[in-house]
Amino acid sequence: MPHLIIDYSANVEAYVDVGALCEMMRSTAAQIDALPMPGIRVRAVRVDHYAIADGNTKHGFIDISVRLRAGRPMDVRKEAVQTLFAAASQFLEPAIAEHSLALSMEMRDIDPELSPKIGSIRDHLEDH
Question: What is the pTM assigned to this prediction?
Answer without folding.
Answer: 0.89
